[in-house]
Each structure stands twice: as structure tokens, then as C-alpha cells.
Amino acid sequence: MRYLFLKGGQIVKWLFFLFIYLLSSTLISIAGEFPNQPDRMAQFLGIGLISSAISLGFIGWRYWVQLQANNPRNFGKYPITWQKVSRLFLLFAAMLVLQYIWSLLITLGILQFPANQQAVDVAANQMPFWNNLFAVAVAPFFEELIFRGIFLNYFFAKNTKWNNFFGILVSGLLFGLGHEPSFDSTLLMYSAMGWLLGLTYLRFRDIRFNTALHIMNNLLTVI
After folding, report:
1. Is the dihedral of CA 172, 178, 184, 186 positive or negative?
2. Which DSSP category does 113 fall into?
3. 149-168 pLDDT tens trace
4. Spatial contact of 139 and 175, defined as CB atoms under 8 Å apart
5. By C-alpha distance, which of 46, 42, 54, 48 is closest to 26?
């Protein structure tokens, strides 16, 4: 009973972190709905940016508290080396290959253009600077903390082979569902990106690496 209560509370907390992230991003998106009302646009944009800063600071703090309480994998305790940076760029190359295959399948008509990316493109056209800035410099921090850092520490904390495997699998699927809620081939592609990011997190034992990989990936979509 105590275990169920603990896990139930963690599920509620994780969903709350996800909610405040989505709320912040939604407020910024709403600002773009008022292109002819600069005062209203500035109002929603300001609220969204303040909400994002507070929410990201809070989630980052909760992640830090988690690691202080339970950190069997020693996340964040290994030094950054040039060898690790070079390996990160190899993983980035793998992500480029994944993106290329995805684009090719869309071009061939095998996959549909993702609805999530369509929404991102529409938002970017409404407020190019702010929405692109959020997508590249803010969203990756939120998503890596929520889908990798906090999620794995809550539900797959044990440092075992199978626990790490299932942790990457489930967190990647949730990441995919967060971008494509339909059970189709597009979900599989988003999940594959989530799996690669999860693998990076557990391989380097430092959330800065998978966040950097996520940033580089999102940067490609806005260039």
C-alpha cells in the first residue's frame, strides 16, 4: 500500500510538471493569435515568458532535489571531456540520419507530415523570433528534465540493465505520445528520437548532453 501511494504521488507530480510546461508553451502560442493587437500579444507573451522561467526553474530545482535524495547512477558527477563531446556529435550524426529517413518517407508519401510540426510551423510564422527561440532554447530543457531526468528517477531509478532498457523504452514512448498522440508510424519516429535522447542520458550520465543533442536537433528544424 505504501509503495502504491508513493508511485501514485509521483505520477501526479510528473503530470503536474508536464502541465505547467504545456501551460507556458500554450500562453506563448496564444500570443501569436493577436497579430493585429500588439498590446494583447505583448501581454500574453510576457505572461508566457515569465511562466516559462518560473516553471523551468521549479522543475530544474525538483530534479536537483531528486538527485540529492537518490542518485544510484551518479548523474552529473562525471567530468565533461573532449572524448565525450566527440561521441555526442556521433549521436547527433545518428539523429541526422533518422531525420533524413523521416523526411524521405514523408516525401515518398509513406508517412504524413507530422501534425505537431505543422502546429510548430504555424506558430513560427506568427511570431518567428519568440516561437523559434522557445523551440530551440527553452523546450529542450523542459522536455529533457520531464521525460528523461525526473521520469527515470521516479519510475526507473534502479541502475540495472533491464531497468535502464525499459526506462528508455517507456520514456521514449511517452515523449512520442507527447508530440504525436495517434498510434501511427509518426509516433514511432518521435519515439525513436526519444529513445536516442534517453540512451544519451544514460550513456553520459549527465542531462546536459541529451539536452544539447535535443537543442541541436530543434535548431535544424528552424534553420
Report:
1. negative
2. P
3. 999 999 999 889 999 999 99
4. no
5. 48
Q: Looking up cell 498522440, which residue turns up?
A: 181
SS3 114: coil
The cell numbers describing 41, all together, are 500579444
CA end-to-end span of the chain: 51
Whether the CA torsion 157, 162, 168, 170 is positive or negative: it is negative
Q: Would you state the cell numbers that stand for residue 175, as one nine-digit string?
A: 515523449
Chain centroid offset of residue 43 CA: 26
Structure-block grid coordinates of residue 211 = 539536452
CA angle 87, 89, 94 (to 5 degrees): 100
Q: Which residue has the cell 530544474?
A: 60
Cell of 200: 544519451
* 92 three-class SS: helix
201/84 Cα distance (integer angstroms): 12
Angle at which helix 185-204 crosses helix 207-222, to 10 degrees, equals: 140
Record the pTM.
Answer: 0.93
Residues of 176-214 as b/e, b for ≥16 C-beta within 10 angstroms? Answer: bebbbeeeeebbebbbbbbbbbbbbbbebebbebbbbbb
Q: What is the pLDDT of residues 88-100, one digit of tens each?
A: 999 999 888 888 8
